[in-house]
């Protein structure tokens, strides 16, 4: 390693020699950097689960345009849309089809506790509007009060749910209605609810007596192949001309929901705050590690300075150390963090996970924080007379 | 050898203060001294008389506040970082405490004194030069030792080798023999004396060692920051 670095740097790898000279200090420095990594990765994982959970709902459906009420900031919030709007939209030559989507929450009272389910009601024949997996499953929904349940629903036995098939259903009661679970799918990760439930529009209206078929929560539309979604959206805004509606491309609706979750909802803000705190604490730890190291070698550096070495030389040593600490701190940090995240995932059902992107981001960030901290830590050296440092 | 004149260092009207405000205290008072190239000068004086302060001022390790120091033809008062660094490379400093780099072996420490010049020596050549220098100070069998495994005297000799390996034009030494036994102390001083004769190296040394005084071309005594005595050879 020493020889390799010597080749690489074209000088004695003083940073490396210095770090490895004092093993105890090296290990505690690496532990510090690792801890900073764990902190940031876990916070990013938690914050990222918000994104995953939000996007998950949109992934169940396949649409180009979504019409929602003005106050519908998310799938579950806001008022209804008149079904009349669907028919109006279908009159557009570029619209090839549309469907009503109903969304509501339902409580399953169990002796062990309540389970809150987010229920989607949709015409089971509208398979074009569902993701391939869901399209395949809804075939069993026409049966009244049949439902497909999210296998990863919090508070329920995943194994039991996994065993549910059309020929071996399970039933439960909610507000006096008996619901038959005929199948399950891999969902998971609602923040507002414990899991998802898919039912037919008929079943939905049966379960929620106050809801009517003429007023779904959202309208999903598909446009002709090759049609410009943006152009169709602006045309629809004009022809429908209802200022109390949000007519958006599906992608836009998803992006706006995400932005809303991250910036308007308390959970999103708290998670964002967690990330910021994590990063700040991480930077403080890394700075502490490097400035302690510089302080510990101040006399030696001062001697080099007295010999005629310039500031660039010291920066080189500290950057070398920063690089080494960032690399060696990263591996254990990633391992511990992904362990923690999978425990968190198992315990909460939240889709917390470390993505490759997060890992790269954290690594680059660590490198930058280490380098910057090191550079700042050498400033005292730059300013002082060598004679004052002995 | 660049830099005009037959003097390696000329100090004129040199004053120095430590601290600020009420605590401000003058350590050097109007010192005017010149150091001839190739000469060996000994600085003497009681503790606290300003020997180290003066040495670091003329040795380019401390900013000159008031007065003038010309070192190898360059003014140190108000000198840029680049000038300071260049002049430090042309001189060698031997400190009271050895100040070796703990994580570098003896030979690596000495090589650092060469690498600073970036003089296009390849690794093998600089290793050879460093090993030769360590041989001269009697440490041929200790080249790969870490400082932690060397005695105080051995460490000091490594520091001497480090200061001399780059063929400095001026050598500043602050009680270099304090940590050495009599024989190796004398060896080091004789080596410095020989370098002066062979290469024209100027040496300025703080010491109380009576036997070194015999080798000195000139002896300067400081008291309370003032030059109180100047004499040629043995006082
Ligand atoms: N960094 C400093 N800050 C404040 N005062 C200092 C500093 N360095 C030296 N002094 C003061 O300046 C005066 C001269 O100190 P200096 O170290 O130059 O003396 P010295 O002759 O080398 O003494 P010694 O023989 O003990 O090494 C002393 O009064 C000392 O206390
Ligand atoms: Mg002193």
- When the domains of chain B are counted, the total is 1
- The rough form of chain B would be described as globular
**Low-pLDDT residue spans of chain A:** none
Instruction: Give the strand content of chain A.
Output: 15-25%
**Termini distance of chain A?**
31 Å
The SS-based structural class of chain A is alpha+beta
Q: Helix- and strand-based class of chain B?
A: alpha/beta
Give the largest interface: A-B, 26 and 31 residues
* Percentage of residues in helical conformation of chain B: 25-40%
**Biggest beta-sheet profile of chain A:** 9 strands, mixed
At CATH level 2, the architecture of chain B is: 3-Layer(aba) Sandwich
The chain-level mean pLDDT of chain B equals 89
Kindly describe this structure.
The complex is a heterodimer of chains A (390) and B (235). Chain A has helices at residues 2-9, 14-21, 23-59, 84-90, 132-137, 158-162, 201-207, 229-240, 250-263, 266-296, 298-307, 311-348, 356-377, 379-383, 386-389, and strands at residues 65-69, 95-110, 113-122, 146-150, 170-174, 177-185, 195-200, 218-223, 245-249. With 390 residues, chain A is α+β, with helices and mostly antiparallel strands. In chain A, strand 5 (170-174) and strand 6 form a beta hairpin. Chain A is elongated. The two termini of chain A are 31 Å apart. The model of chain A has no long low-confidence stretch (mean pLDDT 90). The model of chain B has no long low-confidence stretch (mean pLDDT 89). Chain B has a single domain (40-60, 86-232), classed as P-loop containing nucleotide triphosphate hydrolases (Rossmann fold). In chain B, strand 7, helix 6 and strand 8 form a beta-alpha-beta unit. In chain B, the strands form two sheets. Chain B has a six-stranded mixed beta sheet with strand order 6-7-8-3-9-10. Chain B has helices spanning 51-58, 81-89, 106-115, 123-136, 152-164, 182-199, 210-213; strands at residues 7-18, 25-36, 40-44, 66-71, 74-75, 91-94, 170-174, 202-206, 218-223, 226-232. Chain B contains seven helices and ten strands. The radius of gyration of chain B is 17 Å and the shape is globular. By secondary structure, chain B is an alpha/beta fold. At the A-B interface, helix 2, helix 11 and helix 15 of A face helix 2 and helix 3 of B. The complex binds adenosine-5'-triphosphate and magnesium ion. Magnesium ion binds at residues 51-52, 174 of chain B.
